[in-house]
Structure formats: structure tokens, C-alpha cells
Amino acid sequence: MSTGLRIFTIAHVIISLVGIASGLAVAYGLLNAKRLNSPTATFLISTVATSVTGFFFPFHGFTPAHATGIVSLLVLPVAIYALYGRHLAGHWRWIYVVTAMTALYLNVFVLIVQLFLKVPALKALAPNQNEPPFAASQGIVLLLFVVLTILAAIRFRTEASTLDPSST
What we know:
The protein is mainly α. The chain has one domain (3-57, 64-161). Helices cover 74% and strands 2% of the residues.
């Protein structure tokens, strides 16, 4: 791997991890009916950045990573519009929750893929990523995100949710 590609990869990974960490903070806020402005902006910016930069890696043909990036880049503008364009008014509130949580799930999905590719113990359990340990991991995370998204949509549905002043 060339030095330039190595640096680009490290930057991409850091951006991805920032997106996941800030996304988890946003999810926590949604579950507690709170808007966290700074973590939300960080999450949305870093998640767009990680999705976009993922397309700049050398590749041969269309891959599942490209499909994941495309889906992420389809849901993120909706989340951004719901939050900043429509100010979470009416049905835009739950649309924001669903699209933001979907974007976070996609980041975590890719993290799991990368862990099974890069961590020797996980790679030994699922070298082709079609073995039961990999499928179980992804299935559990998907189920967890479905439940969390439903709970967040329920808890964040009222206009009475508060803005956390410590998050700005």
C-alpha cells in the first residue's frame, strides 16, 4: 500500500470512528428526547464525509461497500433536510430519527465488516464473511438498531423535547 493510500485510509477510518462515536451520542439523545446540537452536526458531517471518501479507494467493479455508501448518501440528505430544513416539524421529526439511525446503523455495519476482515480472531471465525458468527453479529446489531430506532422515534416524537445547552 502506498504512503498516500495509507494516509487516506487512516483519515477515512478516523472520520468513520468519529461518525460512529458522535452517532452513538446522538442516538442516546434521541432515546432521552434531547437534541444534542454539537454531536448531531459532528455525526452528520463525519458520516457524509466517510460515505463520500469511501468511493475514493481503488476498486474493481461494484462492491457491497459501494451499495452501503450509496444508501447512506441517500438517507443522510433526508436527515439533514428534516433537521435543518424542516426543523423537525410534524412528520419530519420521526423521519429524522429513522434516517439518522439508519445512517448510524450503516456505519456500524461497515465497522463490523472491517473488524471481521482485520482482526485475526474474528477473521478466523468468518474468513469469507458468510459464516454463522458473522451473520449472527450482523443480525444482532440489525435487531438492536431496529429496536433502538423504534424507541427513539417514540421517545423523540413530541415537540416538547429539549435542547441540551451543554451540547452546544
